[in-house]
Amino acid sequence: MTTVELEEERKEIISRYRKMLRHAKPVLKDGDAKIIKKAFYTAMEAHQDMRRKSGEPYIFHPIEVAMICIDEIGLGTTSIVAALLHDVVEDTDIELTDIERDFGPKVAQIIDGLTKISGVFEYGTSAQAENFRKMLLTLSQDVRVILIKLADRLHNMRTLGSMPRHKQLKIASETIYLYAPLAHRLGLYAIKSELEDLYLKYSDQETYREIANKLNQTKVARNNFIKSFIRPIRTKIGTMNYPFEIKGRPKSIYSIWRKMKKQNVPFEQVYDLFAIRIIIDTPMEEEKSTCWQIYSLVTDSYKPNPDRLRDWISTPKGNGYESLHTTVMSRPGQWVEVQIRTRRMDEIAEKGYAAHWKYKENSNKQNGAGGLENWIAKVREMLEQNDSSAMEFVDDFKSNLFNEEVFIFTPKGDLKILPHNATALDFAFEIHSEVGAKCIGAKVNQKLVPLSYKVKTGDQVEILTSTKQKPNEGWLKNVVTSKARSRIKEALAEDRKRNIEMGREIVERKVKQMKMDYNEVTMQRLRAFFNQKSIPDLMDKIGKGEIDAKEIKKFQEAREQVSSKKKTTTQVTDASTFKKEAVTNKNRERDEDILYIGEDMDIFEYKTAKCCNPIPGDDIFGFITVNEGIKIHRTSCPNAVELMSNHGHRVIKARWASQKDESFLTGLRIEGTDRVGLINDISKIISEDLKVNMRSVSIESDKGIFRGDIQLFVQDTKHLDQLIKNLSNVNGVIQVTRTDLK
């Protein structure tokens, strides 16, 4: 770069830094600006020779992350300093000890939590999962680690356009799998929505653009509708003498897409594209009554749907969210969601956890701060008791702490909060570990229910126990909470330990009776004879009585037979390996110009994944499996997010090249109004007009509505699109959609 360009760049860096300081001014105390300045110059010097993929100076990134922390999360000086320095330990020569010396232990602790783990990971685990666990370990001391990490992720997603396609998919998948739910759980709804939208933008660009364009086209009509809808409400609320604001906000592109998928409808049939939000300034002690007053005024103007009333003011969500939601019928006959909240509630809804500190002096269980504190306490408890692999931990964490809650009452009226889909057995362990371990059933609202009963909000649950009861492996299928799973596993481990000891005693006695040596070789032969994965597994089953001790006598008689069987097995294995190689070579001859795989776009052997059945023309990626080589998935595959987020290091690029005349299995769902000859017309288009072979057809008709699921072979996505278009033109067919094969 020329000297002039470098000088312009330096001016831009200083300009962005000053803008950040101006935005931070309201939260700065004496001496804070000096510390931030020191952090900025430390970061600028450390990153001076580094550039991002877009070609911009790297220092732009930490400045923007700090800006998000200030403007969109509402964090203070310590977080701003940590945001500016968040990459220096990982990417430059600066050590954590240098950070602690210059900026204190608190900043160093946060940066340690933000610094990615380096080194070798245990085989089969995910680097991303390990990073996430480490970050959560730091959360047990300081929630700001997660908040800054979310700001970092949001800026990376905003600038994802400069990354190669396969990296976009990996980062976007990890974001939707972990970071968007985490933002939601911490009450950062604006950030959560943007992360979800950006995920869709990079994972399914065509769908994103289509919805965005249609939202833009309907903007004028939508705004006119909102103005006419709020006119009578505005007049009535104006008489209350409180400052207020009413705004109509369109739903996020991602939430519209989710609704389209869930209800299997096009954009034009998604009616609740926006929500009306009423925000009122009122003293804290009058918040609840004022919100209900406004609810009364809204329902005076429009008829409410009683099944769609949500009261998160009386019982806030676990992440602190408070609001009153109702759905009312507008004049043109369209349902409209109305959200009623105070200014304090709105700030907490937008800025989540960080906003609680602003109201901390007044916080109590009513305003939801307690719910978030309880959630973080549960995170700590889960980290302390967790001894599973990183992958299991992340799955457990997601299922326990990202789900919505249900509110349950004890017989004495105490409130317990459990995750969605929790069971009576989860409730028993929530009361006490001993109660859970002895649980034989429950009474819900005075009616007897099994352990697997899924509790619902408002249930009053009484646990029934017995001293003779003890946990068994089947219980693990009936619980979702980390606490219950952990306690059951502990009890099973104790049982297993006792069974193994008992099994060893039995085996040792039997082996000596047969005048054989009791040693490792004999034990391994016994394990193979009983077809067990390990010696402890064998001892456990013998100790439990699942393998009869008398069967051990047969082991001696069968030793010679087992030896000869092994030789036979080896020959069969060699033959099957030869056969497999022959098939592979045949496949290579057939497929060599179909698919290019990897960074260098080489030709490899591959299989197409049965979960999504990709066909030429689909947007795809390769996944390196443990036992089956490379598998090709569609980027819209139901399993894509989990594969890319948990095993990003095993995801590789793949693209279709020129293809041969081959057919690929896919599925179609056809819906419409039934009539005589409809099936014949559909079959004619499929088999005669487009020469497509059908594998299976499943058709049902109920009260004049026709539904058909067809599995058929097509050449590529163009062939499929033409087929869908032709079928859509058949008289009586309302909708034709591609489906994933089961």
From TrEMBL:
<dbReference type="InterPro" id="IPR004811">
    <property type="entry name" value="RelA/Spo_fam"/>
</dbReference>
<dbReference type="InterPro" id="IPR007685">
    <property type="entry name" value="RelA_SpoT"/>
</dbReference>
<comment type="function">
    <text>In eubacteria ppGpp (guanosine 3'-diphosphate 5'-diphosphate) is a mediator of the stringent response that coordinates a variety of cellular activities in response to changes in nutritional abundance.</text>
</comment>
<dbReference type="InterPro" id="IPR003607">
    <property type="entry name" value="HD/PDEase_dom"/>
</dbReference>
<dbReference type="Pfam" id="PF04607">
    <property type="entry name" value="RelA_SpoT"/>
</dbReference>
<dbReference type="Pfam" id="PF13328">
    <property type="entry name" value="HD_4"/>
</dbReference>
<dbReference type="InterPro" id="IPR012676">
    <property type="entry name" value="TGS-like"/>
</dbReference>
<dbReference type="InterPro" id="IPR002912">
    <property type="entry name" value="ACT_dom"/>
</dbReference>
<dbReference type="InterPro" id="IPR045600">
    <property type="entry name" value="RelA/SpoT_AH_RIS"/>
</dbReference>
<feature type="domain" description="TGS">
    <location>
        <begin position="403"/>
        <end position="465"/>
    </location>
</feature>
<comment type="similarity">
    <text>Belongs to the relA/spoT family.</text>
</comment>
<dbReference type="Pfam" id="PF13291">
    <property type="entry name" value="ACT_4"/>
</dbReference>
<dbReference type="Pfam" id="PF19296">
    <property type="entry name" value="RelA_AH_RIS"/>
</dbReference>
<dbReference type="InterPro" id="IPR033655">
    <property type="entry name" value="TGS_RelA/SpoT"/>
</dbReference>
<dbReference type="InterPro" id="IPR012675">
    <property type="entry name" value="Beta-grasp_dom_sf"/>
</dbReference>
<dbReference type="InterPro" id="IPR043519">
    <property type="entry name" value="NT_sf"/>
</dbReference>
<dbReference type="InterPro" id="IPR045865">
    <property type="entry name" value="ACT-like_dom_sf"/>
</dbReference>
<dbReference type="InterPro" id="IPR004095">
    <property type="entry name" value="TGS"/>
</dbReference>
<protein>
    <submittedName>
        <fullName>RelA/SpoT family protein</fullName>
    </submittedName>
</protein>
<dbReference type="Pfam" id="PF02824">
    <property type="entry name" value="TGS"/>
</dbReference>
